[in-house]
Specification:
The chain is built from 11 helices and 8 strands. It is an alpha/beta fold.
């Protein structure tokens, strides 16, 4: 990171909140199939690499991220089924099902909030504020920019520009934290912001991109 950071903008999914896998994967559980967290994260790593490659090299985007993810997961589980895949995708896109929060999340946000203005930029369904409130962290943020209300999704520059305007801060003084390189990192840096990947699954461990695997690690990097 270069220059003084005054504002930190966070993604929500796979950054602050994580999928309620028990709820989302219920259709699989009814079939007696229970994928492990290790299987989930392995497919997440594979999907991010494939998705980033398509986004960065202009390939045909005939599938969304989660459709690609579940096709990979179901293939690994020998449970390939288009109807099941679509049911899982729809459950995952429902913001209320992103309700798992890592221990210490609020505490780190409170500490960061003493030094930086905190805000949200999320590709969601217009209901991300309600989810953050239910999880007990909405009050940590001064601004919520939700693609479902803005009408543009990351990596489109407009969603970043609107978020910056809402916080009255310049892009060079802003840091964006999100989990997908081609959507979050590229979108933010093209908007002139600094960016760091939140990489819990380890999809970007072998890359040169700035990354952290926890909020505590982000806090340490900022302090350094």
């Amino acid at each position: 990171m270069t220059g003084q950071v005054k504002a930190i903008f966070f993604d929500v999914g796979n950054t602050l909140l994580f999928p309620d896998r028990d709820t989302i994967l219920r259709p699989l559980h009814r079939r007696g199939v229970v994928p492990s967290l290790e299987q989930w994260q392995a497919i997440e790593r594979q999907t991010k690499v494939k998705f980033d490659d398509i986004m960065q090299h202009g390939g045909p985007m005939d599938q969304g991220f989660w459709q690609m993810f579940y096709e990979g997961l179901l293939k690994q589980l020998d449970s390939e089924d288009d109807v099941l895949r679509d049911e899982l995708v729809n459950a995952t896109r429902h913001s209320a099902n992103w309700s798992t929060m890592r221990p210490g999340t609020r505490e780190v946000l409170e500490r960061l909030g003493k030094h930086y203005a905190l805000a949200i930029i999320s590709n969601a369904d217009g209901k991300i504020s309600a989810v953050l409130k239910r999880c007990g962290i909405l009050d940590c943020f001064k601004s919520i920019t939700d693609s479902g209300t803005v009408g543009y999704e990351k990596p489109h520059p407009v969603i970043f520009q609107q978020a910056l305007q809402s916080m009255r801060v310049g892009p060079q003084q802003s840091l964006y934290v999100g989990d997908v390189y081609s959507v979050d990192y590229v979108g933010a840096t093209r908007a002139g912001m600094q960016s760091i990947l939140f990489d819990v699954a380890g999809a970007y461990r072998e890359t040169e991109f700035a990354r952290v695997e926890s909020l505590e690690e982000l806090e340490r990097k900022l302090a350094a």
